[in-house]
Structures are given as C-alpha cells and as structure tokens.
Amino acid sequence: MKLEHVAFNVNEPREMAEWYAKNLEMEIVRADPASPYIRFLADKARQSMIELYNNPAAAVPDYAAIAPLVLHIAFNVEDVEAVRDRLVAAGATQATEIVTHPSGDKMVFLRDPWQVPIQLINRRKNLI
Question: Which residues face 36 on adjacent strands?
Fold first, then answer.
C-alpha cells in the first residue's frame, strides 16, 4: 500500500494550487474545472501529492486558528532561510523562528496566503 495524497478543503483551491505550483515547485497534475474545483498537486519528485478543493458539504477549517504543530505541510529544502525569504516575498507569513534541533535538522513554520501552515525543513539525514 502507498499513501497517495492528503486533502485540504480550502476557500480558493484554484488560486492556492497556482501559488503552490509557482512557489513550492509543485505540479498541478489534475484540475477539475467545475465545483469543487479539485486540484491535485505532485511534488517535484512525484513521490507525494496534496489535493486542494472547495466542497460546500463540509466547512473549511479555520486554518489561521490551527497551530502549526497540530497541522502543517512540510517541504524538505536545502536552504531554509533562502526559501523562507522567497515565500514571504510571495505572500506567506513567518509563524515561528528558525530552530535547529539536537538532530541537526533546521526548520521554520510559515503560513501560506490562505493561512495553511507550511514547514520548511532541512534534515541532516533524510528520513526516506
């Protein structure tokens, strides 16, 4: 069995998918033109996907009220500071300071323009 995707009900899936494609090196691999405007985005390695959609049958969570330690989308990056700066310039906001864990992993939490928490992490040793 292989994990295919993790899904998020959001207010603006089309706009959010475009922002993730432009700023987080993701590729929109499926885009449904009608409501609920499902967008599947694959990472650069095509090893994981997220789904963004807006289904009125369920409430969109208040992502701004969700602590990044409760829910976040994590991206493994080479240079945490440089990617943070680039994403902030593109409309993200920094939610925490950069920290380095005893393992040597360096990380920071941001919020995308829709307030969904994003983690940027540089792992000293990749997990998978």
Answer: none
Q: What is the pLDDT of residue 108?
A: 98
| Number of helical H runs and strand E runs in the chain | 2, 9
- Report the DSSP pairing between strands 106-111 and 93-94: antiparallel
Handedness of CA 86, 90, 91, 92 (dihedral sign): negative
- For residues 31 and 25, the answer to whether their CB atoms sit within 8 Å is no
Half-sphere exposure of 112 (CA within 13 A, CB side): 25
- Do you know the residue count of the chain? 128
pLDDT, tens digit, 9 for 90 and up, residues 6-19: 999 999 999 999 99
Q: Is 57 exposed, middle or buried (0-12, 13-18, 19+ CB in 10 A)?
A: exposed
Burial 59-68 (b: 16+ CB within 10 A, else e): eeeebeeeeb
Q: Is 15 helix (H, G, I), strand (E, B) or coil?
A: helix
